[in-house]
Amino acid sequence: MAFDALSFHETAVQTPSHENVSEMREFLVETLEAEGTAPTVDDAGNTLATREGDASGPHIVLNTHIDTVPPHVPFERRATPPGVADGSSGQRPRDGDVVRGRGSCDAKGPLAALLTAFFEADIEAGRLTLAVTPDEEVYSTGAAALDLEADGFIVGEPTGLDVCNAAKGRFEGTVTIEGVAAHAAEPGSGASAIRAASPVLQAIESYDETVGPPEHDSLGRPTLEPTVIDGGEATNQIPAECRITIDRRSVPPETQQGFREQLEAHLQSWLPDSLSLSFEYTERETPFLEAFATPADSELVNTMQAAGAGEVRPFGAATEASYFAEDAPTVVFGPGVLADNDGAVAHAEREYVRRSDVERAGEIVTAAVEDLLG
Questions:
Q1: What average pLDDT does range 206-228 have in this prediction?
Q2: Mean pLDDT, rounded, for 148-161
Q3: pLDDT, tens digit (0-9, with 9 covering 90-100), for 252-309
Q4: Residue 198 CB burial class (10 angstroms; 0-12, 13-18, ≥19)
């Protein structure tokens, strides 16, 4: 009996996984067991299952995640996406084809599609692994713990059925400016860290024009944005410290270590000798997600397109694919979109996916896996 991806998806969207993934992981394990596989859950909370062919061959991994961002949005089936009038989306309305709810596209729709391929693909040689992580939306401790030695990764995320071969990385940290505290009535006796924020912000603005990596062929220019600023302890005191939090969206070949060293040196050069600064990354258990780019002419990308995937393009958000791309060619693919013409979709109250796209994504990944492991 064929795997019922739409029934699985409907139940998955109705299973909250924004605070704790235990219930959703239990449902996934039960589904895998019911289909005759023997899943395991490792110490990092990853759900793993494997199928093997009759001969040696490549190892392909299907990966996505089961956690969602809060709050939980209830399940609903409808003919059109939320906030879209009949016919205005450019697709003919179909009764009940649109599933609304938190996680419907990010990433329970992609999960249903990957499960279809995992269960239904004919494997003649090599190995197919399903690896579903528990906390992609926060620290990616599950993905960071995986060591699968694969030859290719297909990562399930909402790409509108396009095959995404690249994505920017994301780093976050705080620039701390240190001055000299003094009475506000005698400002010349101190060195204001808050006043120094002005040239530092200018230096942040100029960083990519003078120091940063060149424009990437597909990902374009990196971005560097100050997002939070904080400083001062008393209203009548020259502040000795000011902190600026920055968000970095990187492109290859920039690395986490290289960016830190270059940014700190660049910003320091804009300060007078009476002040100093330092830059520290925000503390987290796992490495930040680095930028990656799989060649557009790689076998994995070509196979996905031949199977029916859409255009080759970058993915619009940071993803755990970053960890896997260090080891093997990696693409991001799945039903649903991050945003449509009417606004945000993933991580938003309007989150939805089309059931027909979930089915089509499953067909595409199944065909690609059969080509790679046939």
A1: 95
A2: 97
A3: 999 999 999 999 999 999 999 999 999 999 999 999 999 999 999 999 999 999 999 9
A4: exposed
Q: Which residue has the higher pLDDT, 317 or 331?
A: 331
Hey, which residues does 99 pair with through a beta bridge? 77, 353
Task: Supply the DSSP string of 66-98, one letter for each residue.
Answer: ----SS----EEESS-TT--TTTTSS---TT-E
Cα–Cα distances in angstroms (integers) from residue 343 to residues 113, 311, 347, in the given order: 24, 22, 11
The residue with greater pLDDT, 90 or 271, is: 271
Active site residue 261: no
Do the Cβ atoms of 276 and 344 come closer than 8 Å?
no
CA 153 to chain centre: 14
Q: Which domains does the chain have, with CATH numbers?
A: 5-167+291-372 (3.40.630.10), 169-281 (3.30.70.360)
Active-site residue among 10, 67, 162, 351? Answer: 67
| Residue entry with tokens 């450019």 | 90
Q: In the prediction, which pLDDT does 94 show? A: 65
The answer to whether residues 161 and 333 touch, using CB atoms and an 8 Å cutoff, is: yes
| Residue 189 DSSP label | G
Closest by CA position to 102, among listed 289, 346, 272: 346
Phi, psi torsion values for 260, nearest 5 degrees: -60, -50
Neighbours of 285 (CB within 10 A): 10
- Is 151 an active-site residue? no
Q: Of residues 106, 135, 136, 254, which has the active-site annotation?
A: 136
